[in-house]
Specification:
heterotrimer, A mainly alpha, B mainly alpha, C alpha/beta, B: mainly alpha, C: alpha/beta, D-Maltodextrin-Binding Protein, domain 2, 11 helices, about 40% helix
Amino acid sequence: MNRSQHIFGSGLVFAVGLWVAWVSYTQQPAEAFLFPRLIATVFVGLAGWTFGKAVMGLSKVGNGVTRAMFLNMLPGLIITLIYVFWAAKSLGFYTATAIAFFVLLSIYDPDPHTEAKTWVKRGVITAVFLAVMYGLFAMLLNVYTPREILF
Amino acid sequence: MEFIYYFGDVFTPLSFMLLLGGTIGGLILGATPGLSPTMAVALLIPFTFQLEAAQGLILLGAAYTSTVAGGAVSAILLKIPGAPANIATTLDGHTMAKQGQGARALQLSFLASAVGGIFGVLLLIFLTPVLAQWALAFGPSHLFWLAILGVTVIGTLDSASVVKGLLSGCIGLWLATIGFDDIMGAQRFIFHPALGGGINIIAALIGLFAIPQVLTMFAKGRHNTGAEVIEVQRHSILEAFRELFSRTRALSIGTLTGSIIGLIPGVGGQIAGLVAYDQTKKFSSEKDKFGTGHSEGVIAAESANNAMVGPSLVPLLTLSIPGSPTAAVLLGGLLIHGIFPGSDLFDNHPDVAWTFINSMLIGQVLMCIFGLYVAGLAARVAQVPQSVMAAIVLSLSVFGAYSVQGSMGDVYVMACLGIGMFFLERFGFSAAPLVLGLILGPIAEANFIQGGMIADASVGKASYFLTGGLNLFLIAVVLASIAYSVWMELRSRRYTTKEEAQA
Amino acid sequence: MRRMIAGAALGLMSLAGAAAAEEYPERPIMMMVSYGAGGATDFQARIVTMTSGNEDALGMPIAIINKPGAGGRVGWNWFATQADPDGYTLAAYNVPHFIAQSIKGGVEYSTDSFEPIANWGADPAVFVVGADSEFNSMEDVVAFAKENPGKLTVSGAGLFVGHHIAALQIDKAAGTKMAYIPTKGGGAAAMKAVIAGEVLGGINNLSDAFRAQEAGNVKILGVADLERNAFLPDVPTMMEQGLDVDNSSVNFRGVMVPKGTSPEIIEKLSATVPEMFANSRVAKKMEAGGSPMHIMTRDEVIEMWAQRQQTLNELLAGL
């Protein structure tokens, strides 16, 4: 389990290294790519070494991702991805944040879902947090975030 | 001793109000992820339009000092370094907070900041003319070697495996080359439009440190066991004082490194904390404790990044050359009032110059008092339930990354780097060396190319980069640093094999 | 029927457009500066927009956002490709920088990508040397450059910005070949190289050089403009020193919007913004900071852009 994960992880880094090297050595103008070439060479060397060690099962550092961890993380990760890559821009920052915040809270809050009190608490926390964010970013710092629907 | 004469000006009611406001506001701005000191000071410039020159500068000076220290708050409590200066603070500071020692970490960080900061401002007061010459002595070849010195730190910084540390550094160096190259203007590795502007360092910092945090909290799942609730220990300020002054080695290494590196135009502020942390670790008798919530780490990092504040203004105040982005913004604040830094400033507007410098001195003290006052309260952040914390940190990261340049691209980059970093961390890579590569890459590259161009037109590359006292000194330090790392690596390997043999 | 609906929709849209322009601006406006905070462009942009919140100006504040990198390419590329043409996203332009860069290629903008609104300043390039340099006039500089081809190191803010254009023009006029060293970090870094003696000379903004001369760090040998500058009445122009260098390298700074912004908004901006620049408080602050002002209306800027495009096409053709 752990060994195959290490192979996968370091293999990915190695692949990125090879791609970087390939791009650096083929793109023009050469002067602008002098430094990337230098970096890419060292990059590939070190990544190759790490990959080799992983293949031989000698990687000791790092615990990998267990199945339980991954399953726990998955809903949060999916919501994060939707929030960052779609909702924030399309729904407006504050709307998207409110929804994402509330949903994440509901998923990971250990309090029982069956009690009305829990839901009120989650709603209040979300509202307070959004008020603070709005006060800090919109009113104090004058940062104009995409608003789209609502505010 | 001229500066004492102008101390009275700091204590007029309006000035003192501004100083207080600037300090408290600066702490809040500094603690907000995504707001670097440079941005915080730039945000305050419009307020100075309405003020007298000296008063405007009091506000800016106070804000500059306290934003740098404020960055430590989010670094310790949320593991989001507000600026590159606070990266080193996360390494031990956040670990301490997780162990319930947030109050202690914050107290130490504010005290160390104040000690370092006051030392730095005193240097600015007494040694400015000497230091100005020193700041100018660093040309492209020296900055190049300095950046390489930073690179040699990479392997040993917060990483269990030297090879993976170096590899993380390489990834950082590569990420830094994305975008337009600064000198030729060629496009490099722009495989998505969001990368057109390169990777913004602040957005990257937020992503690399905060997002893995969030995902780790998610990974723990919904059912928190009782053991997860952290008990925040109270910590008396007096004890923090005592601890700070029993760690004189960390404090003095941090302060000195910060002051010296802060002086160098274009490099200083960003790496002062990391270099000081690394040096302290090398000289410490408790090397193994670094990274596990060791107070020396916090003290060294924070004293260094505040010690850099004073010296970083030397080139600006004497030569009218801003040595750091924040100094550049302060230059704007001076120019708006028709004051030109340089001899003009000290000869014709001594009241402005000295009031400004004094306000930074007093600002350090105020920042420390206020910081100590809130430290106990702020440390309770560690008690916030994981589910709430994860959502807060995620939202703050998105807002913070967006507000850097008002660009969605930075938010995407932040998220991608963060998610990638989470998985890399699971395989033994770490964020600190990666960020160090990201910071040092452009410095090394630009100075190598620029130095090379000057060298080709004059003495040739070899003699330009390899001769001269300062070059040779820096090269010697680089070699010593590498030799030390190798020696430590070999020694620790012998230890582990022995232990394994015994087991 | 279908045509009627289409017509009605079109009418409604233009109506909505007009109404939007009527109320414009109803929220704070953002202005992108493609150089770092504290640089000359950023500093001046902050001053000239400081009164925009006044009722007689736009009635809404303008917030400055910096997108520095690669001599301005990063910011302008973003502005041309990703900025919304809704009137709430303005940008500062620097001519000849962005025109020269668009001629050299590798970027996604040209004069056709932007609509100018108004010009606020003109900062000529000047030739500076360290205070203890043995050069005392452009003649000395040219003589040295002729004797030592490729050995005269001259710093400037980047490739294909005003400073580089001035260096190219001097080379062309004098028949020399200087070693132009672009620095990372803009005019300030280029000036530091001159003061520290890393290079033999430098080309820099008049406003920055004026300050450095006041501080006693540099000597200014020539101004690359048609006339002497009010800030430096004693410094001769390049032409006076026998070098045929015109005002092509003068750094014009002003405000523009992306192509596609509605004509009503452009009209409103180009009527209000020059007056906003002319505010006496703005003029006083600019004067205090040593920054020469030069207000031009939209029509004048359009003409100036076209003219620069032509001269730069010729100058850069041989490279």
